[in-house]
Write a structure and sequence with these properties.
- The complex is a heterodimer of chains A (174) and B (239).
- Chain A is 45% helix and 20% strand.
- By secondary structure, chain A is α+β, with helices and mostly antiparallel strands.
- Chain A has one domain.
- In chain A, a hairpin with a 7-residue loop joins β3 and β4.
- In chain A, 28% of the residues are buried.
- The two termini of chain B are 21 Å apart.
- The longest helix of chain B has 49 residues.
- Chain B is 68% helix and 5% strand.
- A two-stranded antiparallel sheet of chain B has the order 1-2.
- With 239 residues, chain B is mainly α.
- Classes of the chains: A alpha+beta (174), B mainly alpha (239).
- The interface between A and B is medium-sized, with 20 and 20 residues.
Chain lengths: 174, 239
């Protein structure tokens, strides 16, 4: 066959791409489960901190976040049959924003509230992730608004927004 | 009369002068960006060697059946597939290295060294030579990465560490080289990579100049010797 005919070129490109596609599919089928496992492992210790007696956490983000529109909820984990944990982020006072986990038991009570990363002003915005505030959040349910802290309104408002988004997802899961 | 021969250059000398980074200024972007630590340098170096050797092999195989005007798309598909395969394996089995190297793994696709070697070498040589060329280029790239990252890590953090990416970054060894009071923290930032690169590139270029001068001097001496021999022969003839 003539090497310079356009049919030859098209077929060759097609064959090369097909071979590449098959190879990639094979490798993906080997690595995808390992990657998913790794990703759960990375957050698992945070999840265990909220539900110490649960060992079976499932990442259900894909289904649970299908209709989530705010984009503030990054991931949803099902903690056995006890409840759900939501990984959320939002931007407060600093542009880097913060990420935190909030867990709800099946009956709607808060099971845990832990910060994963934050750079809010120490002593002001940072209060939204510390002792008293965390204790207060732990007494809330999935219907309550997050309380505001005066002097840290911007941060607590942002936390509230993200929690609202998580609560909306929680409502669809029940 | 003993003949004056140019000195045979060793592997290391070749590694320095034929270096894609310091010698040809190829693939600098990734070099500057990820040479923050020895771990990253070795991880990236091995990744590039893997892609470079395989892409050279595959391309030398398919080059004869590839018409000239579609060779770039074909090569890019080959290289991009190899990089994606590598990326998936790194993501699965060395997650820490994967997050440290970040976007620069995918950017191996557009690393000039790889397409450059495919175009300049692999498409016109056989598999074995192409593989060797890939290995050699990859090693020199790794060598430059390690050189830059060592300087940056020592000056910036004062510690040389090496960790095992397959075992959750367990530290293999860690040596405090500089006391903490003598550190230059910006060496670990982007600025530091430019400084280090500039100094090392100047040193390599100085070394190359020296070699060139030596070669010229040898050539001159050879010519002079030849002329002398000729003159002597002519004199003998006359006599």
């Amino acid at each position: 066959m003539d090497k310079n005919s356009s049919i030859y070129k098209t077929v060759l490109l097609g064959v090369v791409c097909a071979v590449a596609g098959v190879l990639l599919a094979v490798v993906n089928s080997i690595t995808a489960p390992v990657i998913a496992e790794n990703e759960i492992a990375a957050v698992k210790q945070n999840l265990i901190a909220i539900y110490p007696d649960v060992s079976d956490f499932k990442d259900i983000s894909e289904d649970a976040l299908k209709d989530e529109e705010t984009g503030l909820v990054d991931a949803v984990y099902q903690a056995g049959d006890k409840g759900y944990i939501f990984s959320c982020h939002n931007v407060g006072y600093t542009a880097d924003g913060f990420t935190f986990l909030i867990g709800y038991n099946n009956d709607g009570t808060v099971s845990g509230y832990t910060v994963l990363s934050q750079k809010e002003t120490a002593g002001k915005g940072s209060l939204a992730f510390e002792g008293d505030y965390v204790a207060e959040v732990m007494t809330l349910t999935a219907e309550d608004d997050m309380p505001l802290i005066s002097g840290a309104t911007i941060t607590t408002k942002a936390v509230g927004e993200a929690v609202k988004a998580a609560q909306a997802v929680f409502a669809t899961l029940q | 009369m003993s003949e004056i021969k140019p000195k045979k250059r060793g592997f290391i000398s070749k590694m320095i002068t034929d270096n894609p980074v310091f010698g040809l200024y190829l693939g600098i972007c990734s070099t500057l960006a990820i040479s923050t630590s020895l771990d990253n340098a070795i991880g990236m170096g091995i990744s590039v060697i893997f892609v470079l050797v395989l892409s050279n092999v595959v391309i030398s195989l398919i080059a004869p059946i590839t018409p000239d005007d579609i060779h770039i798309p074909v090569y890019i598909v080959v290289i991009a597939s190899l990089v994606t395969i590598l990326e998936m394996f790194l993501h699965a089995f060395t997650p820490d290295l994967y997050s440290a190297l970040g976007a620069f793994i995918s950017l191996i696709v557009v690393n000039c060294i790889i397409l450059g070697r495919a175009e300049a070498y692999a498409c016109s040589h056989n598999i074995v030579d192409s593989a060797k060329d890939g290995l050699m280029m990859g090693l020199s790239y790794t060598f430059s990465l390690i050189a830059i990252s060592l300087v940056r890590q020592i000056l910036g953090t004062g510690v040389i560490t090496l960790s095992n990416p397959f075992a959750g970054n367990a530290v293999v060894f860690s040596v405090q080289v500089l006391p903490k009071t003598f550190l230059i923290p910006f060496m670990t930032a982007e600025t530091g990579s430019f400084f280090t690169f500039g100094v090392l590139a100047a040193a390599v270029s100085g070394y190359k100049n020296k070699l060139e001068e030596e070669e010229k001097a040898i050539e001159k001496a050879q010519k002079a010797a030849a002329a002398k021999a000729k003159a002597e022969a002519a004199r003998k003839e006359v006599a």
